Amino acid sequence: MTTATPEKSEAVSSDHTPITVTLKILRFNPEVDTEPHWESYDVPAQRTDRLLNLLFYVKDYIDGTFSFRRSCAHGVCGSDAMQINGINRLACKVLMKDLLSQDGKKTTITIAPIKGLTTLKDLYVDMDPFFEAYRAVKPYLIAYGNEPTRERIQSQADRDRFDDTTKCILCACCTSSCPVYWNDGSYFGPAAIVNAHRFIFDSRDEGAEERLDILNDSEGVWRCRTTFNCTDACPRGIQVTKAIQEVKRALLFKRV
């Protein structure tokens, strides 16, 4: 029989010691509010909790009118994108241990809806403009001629060419972190360009020219100012700015 070392015992204990944190949430109910306002909630937590757990606590035990999107809770659906301490992140991927004050003082976490999209209620935003831009770049395989009788073979090198941009989960973290998009919602935005990239550089696709023509518009890739906000915000680690620059080069040199 073995026993845990004191160091391990203390670590386990500290991870599960209850603490209280304050969630400062930007609330907005269009039925009663004319402007968004901040409300604070003291919520019990553990270091191993995800921020999403604390949002559920507010809704389940404090205020049932609190609204936010969520689905898989595993960083795959992208539903729970929001500003957490001013940074676009997924609530289900943020651990409390990474947000707690290091000086022993009580922790306050600010939570607000992502920018650039109209807030419908609390953290719930209108995603229609985002998905309209996504659909506009034709994010699907385009192939002409007769349907093949066997699968379309692709080399590993060809697959690697666009592998990074296949990871997009359409959470809008990148697009809503873009200052160009904040000021002008007609810009396609990083996520739409990333999803165009995924097919433009796919060797099996024959619609690259169509997508490049779409993105050569005044609201397309040329609006990008290379601030890297989009790359920093992506919860999947996609090199968003790099993908946008590759699309620009394809337009400049007419070569994919």
Please explain how this structure is put together:
With 256 residues, this protein is α+β, with helices and mostly antiparallel strands. The protein folds into 2 domains: 19-125, Ubiquitin-like (UB roll), CATH 3.10.20; 127-144 and 155-253, Alpha-helical ferredoxin (Fumarate Reductase Iron-sulfur Protein, Chain B, domain 2, Orthogonal Bundle), CATH 1.10.1060. It has helices at 6-15, 51-62, 128-136, 156-160, 179-183, 190-200, 208-215, 229-233, 240-253, and strands spanning 19-27, 37-45, 81-84, 87-90, 108-112, 119-121, 124-125. The strands form 2 sheets. A 5-stranded mixed sheet has the order 2-1-5-3-4, with helices on one face. It has a two-stranded antiparallel sheet with strand order 6-7. β3 and β4 (87-90) form a beta hairpin. The protein is elongated, with a radius of gyration of 22 Å. Mean pLDDT is 92; it is low at 1-13. GO terms for molecular function: 2 iron, 2 sulfur cluster binding; 3 iron, 4 sulfur cluster binding; 4 iron, 4 sulfur cluster binding; electron transfer activity; metal ion binding; succinate dehydrogenase (quinone) activity. Its cofactor is [3Fe-4S] cluster; [4Fe-4S] cluster; [2Fe-2S] cluster. This is succinate dehydrogenase. Keywords: 2Fe-2S, 3Fe-4S, 4Fe-4S, Iron, Iron-sulfur, Metal-binding, Oxidoreductase, Tricarboxylic acid cycle.
- Helix/strand order, N-terminal first: HEEHEEEEEHHHHHHH
Tell me the span between the first and last alpha carbons: 63 Å
- Uncertain runs are 1-13
Quickly give the structural class: alpha+beta
Number of structural domains: 2
> How would you write the strand order of the largest sheet?
2-1-5-3-4
Approximate shape: elongated
> What's the β-strand tally?
7
Q: At CATH's second level, what is the architecture of the largest domain?
A: Orthogonal Bundle
CATH superfamily of the largest domain: Alpha-helical ferredoxin
What portion of residues is helical?
Answer: 25-40%
Biggest beta-sheet profile: 5 strands, mixed
Query: What is the residue-averaged pLDDT?
Result: 92
Alpha-carbon Rg, integer = 22 Å
Beta strand %: 5-15%
Count up the helices.
9
CATH topology of the largest domain: Fumarate Reductase Iron-sulfur Protein, Chain B, domain 2
